Amino acid sequence: xxxxxxxxxxxxxxxxxxxxxxxxxxxxxxxxxxxxxxxxxxxxxxxxxxxxxxxxxxxxxxxxxxxxxxxxxxxxxxxxxxxxxxxxxxxxxxxxxxxxxxxxxxxxxxxxxxxxxxxxxxxxxxxxxxxxxxxxxxxxxxxxxxxxxxxxxxxxxxxxxxxxxxxxxxxxxxxxxxxxxxxxxxx
Amino acid sequence: xxxxxxxxxxxxxxxxxxxxxxxxxxxxxxxxxxxxxxxxxxxxxxxxxxxxxxxxxxxxxxxxxxxxxxxxxxxxxxxxxxxxxxxxxxxxxxxxxxxxxxxxxxxxxxxxxxxxxxxxxxxxxxxxxxxxxxxxxxxxxxxxxxxxxxxxxxxxxxxxxxxxxxxxxxxxxxxxxxxxxxxxxxxxxxxxxxxxxxxxxxxxxxxxxxxxxxxxxxxxxxxxxxxxxxxxxxxxxxxxxxxxxxxxxxxxxxxxxxxxxxxxxxxxxxxxxxxxxxxxxxxxxxxxxxxxxxxxxxxxxxxxxxxxxxxxxxxxxxxxxxxxxxxxxxxxxxxxxxxxxxxxxxxxxxxxxxxxxxxxxxxxxxxxxxxxxxxxxxxxxxxxxxxxxxxxxxxxxxxxxxxxxxxxxxxxxxxxxxxxxxxxxxxxxxxxxxxxxxxxxxxxxxxxxxxxxxxxxxxxxxxxxxxxxxxxxxxxxxxxxxxxxxxxxxxxxxxxxxxxxxxxxxxxxxxxxxxxxxxxxxxxxxxxxxx
Lengths: 187, 531
Prior knowledge:
- The complex is a heterodimer.
- Chain A has helices at about 15-35, 90-95, 95-100, 115-125, 140-145, 170-185, and strands at about 60, 70, 80-85, 105-110, 130-135, 150-155, 160-165.
- By secondary structure, chain A is an alpha/beta fold.
- In chain A, the strands form two sheets. In chain A, strands 5-4-3-6-7 form a five-stranded mixed sheet.
- Helix content of chain B is about 70%, strand content about 0%.
- Chain B starts with a helix and ends with a helix.
- The chains are: A alpha/beta, B mainly alpha.
């Protein structure tokens, strides 16, 4: 203590900023580690839709004569809703993932801001994993679902409640760690 | 106050910095918005409300801009939605609630006051109060020994009462000054920079250096605009001349106005009765507007151009690129080599082309005798980056599943999934192998044996997978000897092995069991005849 210029003992209040800093640094480190381990994805925005009933979206079917289509028609069993477009490159990348998922769950496609002819050509080229496709020409259906970019994927339970939402392409990690386990849980 | 005057110049200096900073930033801030005239409402009152609402809503694509500032398409949709609801007579609160319902609190640039955000909103007040408390405590501690205890404390034996009092009052003043300085600066900076409703500040206005760059850019831009305007005037004067439309397309491309470019090329296409060169230029313009992706409409145009002229260079290049983007590297190389053959040896695209071919050969594991031009390598690498990423992602996903199944080969449904994925990727042989593995995992499942055998037959892989086919067929015969598919397949494999008699017997047996008018009966009869 003698070598302190003030000659006073070190007070506990000096520790307050230090402790506050360590607490903050702890939170920051935990968040950073979670991001590095891939548990936390900073590109995913929090969604208010989870736990809510899926909005009543009704769109004309791609095969025009068959009338309208919407998630409500598939109530009674789990459903995957995939918002895609032929102009979207990541949508091509997730085609194999959807082909895998098609085995386990029905998939409703929503063709977001896409020309029906282009959508058809896209499906011809990359496969059609959908039980039905709704044509969302002006993006109103996407807006009702809170979509902010394609592709986006929603998992609904038999009652039409949104259990899960994934923005961006379904890659291997999302497929194996998130979607397939949740779908198996449902069945 | 001899001592406190010493701190004054420092204080004034700090305050000046704060004020200068605030003035600089508020002065530089100019309103910028992405609103286009056709979005605006005719009623100025409603339009003002729309602007006010837009400034408080976050664009979820470019997340630190409001939808009023952002050029993103989603932002435009949201602006339109806000205006649609306003015209429908909804109140500001209704509109914010509706948008919040779908996009969440995050869409509001100012977080709402709710139990979950109490800490957030109270934090400044708590920190301020905490700071004030610390300052107050520091003052009291300094005062206590002087006023309350007549005896000097052990630690301060040398202080005279006047000295201590003077020193403590100076320290207190300094603390208060520092405290108000921090609070004042924070407030000024927040008001100038941090408020959610501040308009976006374009990057180019932030520094003088960038402003100078902007001047030269503006000059270039003025030239481009002049060229564009001249081209448009020419088109208006003589709309029947194709060269005018082509010049307009090029001027528009140069000015980054892809919509005009596409319109002009379409017009030129009509005037020339679908000249293949112009058709492929349009395909290229569409692809450029889609960040280099050969979109479905562009693909159709390329096919149209090639149908009219199979040696059209631009179309050949784009067709190869489309195949490359689909991961069909062999077709990409085919098309690009075709282009090499029809081009003269000194054509400007030859080095890039050779490089692209080498690239596709590497990606597809195909051997092609080419000498890559090293100078163009970087260009090609940069332009194909996103495609490579995408291919790597697909390959990684499927390979991961394959690797997992190698470790756990009993997972029959897993193999079937893998087969479907291979099928989508066009890797037919790998799909057949996966189906055979599925059949081996699901040894008691007749359908699994059947699916694999059918894939072998459909892919003409009877020779490559002869042993597997024998094994699977034996199982199928044991489990479902009377199924029509079984009979058909036994006949088919007997025929492949050259045992015509057995093939005829199985197929005749199948034919006898089919109703007379079955659609495949005729085909089967023809097949028996052909034996």
